[in-house]
Amino acid sequence: MDVSCQIAGPQNRLFPCLTARKVLGGPDPLDYISMYRNMGCAAQDVQEHWHYVSFGLSDLYGDNRVHEFTGTDGPSGFGFELTFRLKREAGETAPPTWPAELMQGLARYVFQSENTFCSGDHVSWHSPLDNSESRIQHMLLTEDPQMHPIQTPFGAVSFLQIVGVCAEELQASQQWNGQGILELMRGIKVAGGPWLITDMRRGETIFEIDPHLQQERVDQGIETEGSNLSGVSAKCVWDDLSRPPDDEEDSRSICIGSQPRRLSNKDTEQIRETLRKGLEFNSKAALPPISSQKQNHDRAQIRKDSLESESSAAIVPHELVRTRQLESVHLKFNQESGTLLPLCLRGRLLHGRHFTYKSINGDTAITFVSTGVEGAFATEEHPYAAHGPWLQILLTEEFVEQMLGDLHELGSRDESKLPKEYSWPEKKLKISILPDSVFDNPLQ
């Protein structure tokens, strides 16, 4: 797959960066990363920058050494490669190498999880991308402005560009959507401009550069469109307060410090589906149905989509796990997960959608659903229902409005104020926001 001709013109110099290729038994998931000095485009007010392109997430060989070759009609490997555009600083004669390490880290996640990225996805990194003191500590993904999808002998390949963003911009993309924030950044040269060039020395967010206009557009987008973020990996657990502690029968056993009941692979896939965007704005939201019917085992295995992809195909478990109605539940989140509860309620449930927290420490999952979501096993009559360690909570619009008023202070990230307790006795629901240490050391 030769992509250099698409981006390297007479003024663009190539700096090859070879890595320990996985096909040769090396530790790096990407085969290599090319680095280009891109002279920009004066006509579009695009500044000079370094352009990085990965090789290896797509199928480079077609011989099943790295990726299963399934024909030319489908995706090549994972179907995409990563790119990154970094502002060239005055006096730099060679590109910095840290973006290559960053791309290897993202590729490692893709190979290990088999989750692909899609345009509009975000990556919560929580650290300066270049290990400096920069405010650019997270990433959004979008289509590369120069490199369009191509068809190779081994399938189709698209090019997803990594865009560095500040924490405030990441939060806005979660509350609204990544593409909306990227569009705002395209209109501000110092924030990226038309080609979304990352400047690690950028000291102001788009909301500080243009405080009123940018926030107004985000608020309007949330109000009219809701959020595209349908789920996150999180530190969370839930307790069934209606079950006696010594009741072992069919216990979901997911309290902190206990041994969890494991989901089947098909049920795990079903939970993964609830983390996908697959909810069209103009149609009724739907969760995959619970069914005891078996899948066609002859169906070809496909790659898992992004947790935030635009597709949503129903996954049918191969075995039936009994669904239980619960009388009272206690939800526990760490602080970062807790700050997303207003997003879940305002940006998702008030727009007739669902939102899922999937525990990073096990099979536990908590899905909030609105009354407009089809296929849920929680109902208005029984709003709390468990399918193994997967809990669904159905909230009416009236209760969502009440919770939003009670949870207004969750934007604070001061750990000294933890734990925080919220309780709605008439609904038999309790939520606790706890320090990370509780989840990291469950037996203490």
From TrEMBL:
One of its GO terms (cellular component) is nucleus. Residues 26-202 form the Suppressor of fused-like domain. Keywords: Acetylation, Cytoplasm, Developmental protein, Isopeptide bond, Nucleus, Phosphoprotein, Ubl conjugation. It is found in: Cytoplasm; Nucleus. One of its GO terms (biological process) is negative regulation of smoothened signaling pathway. It holds the Pfam family SUFU_C. The keyword Ubl conjugation applies. Belongs to the SUFU family. This is Suppressor of fused homolog. It comes from Xiphophorus couchianus (Monterrey platyfish).
